Amino acid sequence: MSQLTVIANIIAKTESIELVKAELIKLLAVTRAEEGCINYDLHQDNQAPEHFTLYENWVSRELWQAHMANDQLAEYVKATEGAITTFTLNEMTQIS
Amino acid sequence: MSQLTVIANIIAKTESIELVKAELIKLLAVTRAEEGCINYDLHQDNQAPEHFTLYENWVSRELWQAHMANDQLAEYVKATEGAITTFTLNEMTQIS
Lengths: 96, 96
Description:
2 copies of one chain form a homodimer.
Chain A: E1 4-12, H1 17-32, E2 37-45, E3 51-58, H2 61-68, H3 71-79, E4 84-94
Antiparallel strand pairs in A: 1-3, 1-4, 2-3
Helix pairs in contact in A: 1-3
């Protein structure tokens, strides 16, 4: 098992920026307490406030996948239904 | 002065992946030793190896701008001329 970096980019609809931000913030403490989570940091773009980035490192892809199946994430998806324009997710390896 | 997160996405031409990777790696130690650099971490996409991401945190935007004007970065730009397809850079604020 090797460490996994995940970079998630979430673009909120302009009228839903604060809703999406609040829902993303709700995920932080719960996720950071999960098995295998090294860091889970939320950012907002300075020029485009509708753009949020989660920068995540996990002990293994398996433990990240367990996180992806959890209840909190399902609640986030439900709460932000119709509020997101685009969502992309990249699985990466930290070179150094 | 507030802390700045920078996310740089570099897409290399398929035939230049190893060249670009080597040049990016050369930047790491020098940059990490610069004033104001909190972290400067290089990643490669697991599905698209031509995609590199630098995840950076700086003490202030001013110190990041001083970094952007340094000789090492100018050498990187020269060495990777013609080897990059796209380059994007986002200035962000870490919410938590």
